[in-house]
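Data card: per-record layout.
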Amino acid sequence: MLDDVTDNQREPVKVFLVDDHALFRAGVRTELDSITDEVRVVGEAGSVAEAVAGIARTKPQVVLLDVHMPDGGGAEVLRRIRPELPDVVFLALSVSDAAEDVIAVIRAGARGYVTKTISSKELVRAVVRVSDGDAVFSPRLAGFVLDAFADRPGSAPINDPELDLLTPRERDVLRLLARGYAYKEIASELFISVKTVETHVSSVLRKTQLSNRYELSRWASDRRLV
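The structure for this 226-residue chain is written out next.
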């Protein structure tokens, strides 16, 4: 009833999901819709083009944005949307916690960055906070941003010529491999086949001129990918 509405109540934050994995989008949408009335999912997209069209149509307050997609990724969505809809807030939600990915998407205009290990309740809080104007980062990721923008000695490097040889997906595979994941676990985490994981690992070994996963782990650790 109208009399029951108080000044403390607020409209749900309108959220748009951008991720190239339909299964992941469905899971996030179900979780957000089922655990809270603080947010409301108004649309979703699996590509840059779909995202640009969908965000323009639904005009959400917050976009949950994957960093790596086949046709350009989160930074491209930001580049195309922000000039037209400057009030839309972007929160990166990615499997990647690499410094260069965090820095790149923040430089493009995202208001925060959290990884896909975040709990549903924590994600809701993050969405509400960025919609209210806060910046939200996982603690370790916040350090990357502070280092990069402070430009102080010892800060995490933004560019690495050797690292730049790898594609975003190869970096994802390498990161999980260095953490001790088996090929089957990497495939499950990234929603790809075991055969595709093997292909990426072979490509990384070739590009880095290394011979086994132990050398790759050290290489990844030296570049703060782990």
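Known properties of this structure: The chain has two domains: 13-148, 161-223. The chain has ten helices and six strands.

See the next section for split statistics.
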